[in-house]
Amino acid sequence: MLERLWYLALVFPQQAQALQQRWLARGERRSSAARHIRTAWLAQAQAQLARFMPLVRVLIALCPLLGLLGTVSGMIQVFDVMSISGNGNPRAMAAGVSRATVPTMAGMVIAISGLFCLARLDQQARRALQRLSDRLQQD
């Protein structure tokens, strides 16, 4: 996510400026060939803006599952304590319960904050592409 934020803030504006200069340097901008060139440039820009976004989505989806894995391992520890002590000693079980709840909470917090950041990235990418499209208007 940090790479995408960096790209949107620093790299893409420079690329968009270079594309705009190339577009304005063209002698004609109304022909069918010019429209195809514009469409191709916009498609390339969109591909660059969407780069790594599927990976970010997968990583966000994995966070709660990793938290669940921590929950399962913590509950196994609780059951081990119960099988050894036999009576369900609350002090002995507390470490396992803590080990079970902390990863779940961490996974959910990361996933929820990741979803907000992902929505923000998508919105910024759409706006950047729309601004570029507006800059490359045909005469």
Automatic annotation (TrEMBL):
<keyword id="KW-1003">Cell membrane</keyword>
<feature type="transmembrane region" description="Helical">
    <location>
        <begin position="58"/>
        <end position="79"/>
    </location>
</feature>
<keyword id="KW-0472">Membrane</keyword>
<feature type="domain" description="MotA/TolQ/ExbB proton channel">
    <location>
        <begin position="19"/>
        <end position="132"/>
    </location>
</feature>
<keyword id="KW-0653">Protein transport</keyword>
<keyword id="KW-0813">Transport</keyword>
<dbReference type="InterPro" id="IPR050790">
    <property type="entry name" value="ExbB/TolQ_transport"/>
</dbReference>
<comment type="similarity">
    <text>Belongs to the exbB/tolQ family.</text>
</comment>
<protein>
    <recommendedName>
        <fullName>MotA/TolQ/ExbB proton channel domain-containing protein</fullName>
    </recommendedName>
</protein>
<dbReference type="GO" id="GO:0005886">
    <property type="term" value="C:plasma membrane"/>
</dbReference>
<dbReference type="Pfam" id="PF01618">
    <property type="entry name" value="MotA_ExbB"/>
</dbReference>
<dbReference type="InterPro" id="IPR002898">
    <property type="entry name" value="MotA_ExbB_proton_chnl"/>
</dbReference>
<feature type="transmembrane region" description="Helical">
    <location>
        <begin position="100"/>
        <end position="121"/>
    </location>
</feature>
<keyword id="KW-1133">Transmembrane helix</keyword>
<dbReference type="GO" id="GO:0017038">
    <property type="term" value="P:protein import"/>
</dbReference>
<keyword id="KW-0812">Transmembrane</keyword>
